[in-house]
C-alpha cells in the first residue's frame, strides 16, 4: 500500500516559507536514501489564503507541477470566486497579491485545471471528506463533475451558484446546482455528518465535540470507503491523524501550528513549525 517515493502534505494556505523548508527536508531525506528521483508531492488542498505568501506558493507549484498531485480545497475555490468577481474577498482573506498580479489569468487557469479527488495505489485523497454513501468510484465521478464545470466556459456561473449549505444531504436524483453544491460541500467543507449523510457545517471544533446526532465523517459505521486509506486536510482543530485507514494532515500552520508531511508508504512524518507564532495548537 502507498508509494515509497511519495509524501502527502497538509494545508499550506500561503505558508510558503514553511512549505519550501518542508520540501527541502523531504528531498534531503530522499537523497540520504539514495533515491534517484525527487519524491512526488500529494497536496490535500487549500494551497492559498490566510497565510502571507499565496502568490509565491502558486508560483512554486506551477514551476514544479510535474512532481505534484493536487486536489482543491475551499480556499482555492474561494480564490477562483474572488478572481471571477462572483464573490467579495473577506476581511481575513490574503488574496490581494494573487488578484493584483499580472499573472492572475495564468493562476486562475492553472487552479481551474486541478482535481477535487484522486485515487492511486489504494489511497484516496480529498480536501475535506467523503460521504458515507459514496464508494471510491462515486467519489471520483462526483469530483469529475465539478472538475468539468470548473474547466468549462461556464465556470463563473458555476462558482456563482456554488455557495450555500443546502441541500445538506446527497441524493442520487439531485440535479443542477443542488447536485453540484452537495458534491462541492462534501469534498471541500465536510467535517461532521450522520449515518444518512446529512452534513453539519456550523461546528468547527475537534472530533470530540460532535453535535448531537452527528459524527466525524470518517467515524460513520459502514462508510463505503472504509477499506481504503483516505488522506485529507481541512480540519485544523482535528489535527494530525495517522491511523491505518485515515490520514488527516491539517496541523494548522497558518494558525501557528505546523506544516506536516507523511510518507505514504512508511508513514514517517516530517513537520516544520509555523514561522508566524512558533507555537503549536
Task: Report on this structure.
Helix content is 31%, strand content 16%. The protein has eight helices and 13 strands. Helix 3 crosses helix 5. The model has no long low-confidence stretch (mean pLDDT 95). Strand 1, helix 1 and strand 2 form a beta-alpha-beta unit. It has 281 residues and is of the alpha/beta class. The chain starts with 5 loop residues before the first strand and ends in an 8-residue tail after the last strand. The longest helix has 17 residues. The strands form three sheets. The protein has a five-stranded mixed beta sheet with strand order 3-2-1-12-13, covered by helices on one side. The chain is globular, with a radius of gyration of 18 Å.
List the helices and strands and how they pair.
Blueprint: E1 6-9, H1 16-32, E2 40-43, H2 54-63, E3 68-70, H3 74-84, H4 96-99, H5 104-112, E4 117-120, E5 123-126, H6 136-150, H7 155-160, H8 176-189, E6 192-193, E7 199-200, E8 215-216, E9 229-232, E10 241-242, E11 246-248, E12 258-263, E13 269-273
Parallel strand pairs: 1-2, 2-3, 5-9, 9-11
Antiparallel strand pairs: 1-12, 4-5, 6-7, 6-8, 10-11, 12-13
Helix pairs in contact: 3-5, 6-8
Mean pLDDT: 95
Unreliable spans = none
Query: Sheet bearing the most strands, described?
Result: 5 strands, mixed
Oligomer: single chain
Counting helices, strands and paired strands, the structural category is: alpha/beta
Kindly provide the radius of gyration, computed on alpha-carbon positions and rounded to a whole number of angstroms: 18 Å
- In which range does the helix fraction lie? 25-40%
Number of strands: 13
Shape, please?
Answer: globular
Main β-sheet, spatial strand arrangement: 3-2-1-12-13
First-last Cα distance:
31 Å
Structure annotation, total helices: 8
Percent in strands? 15-25%
Give the H and E element order: EHEHEHHHEEHHHEEEEEEEE
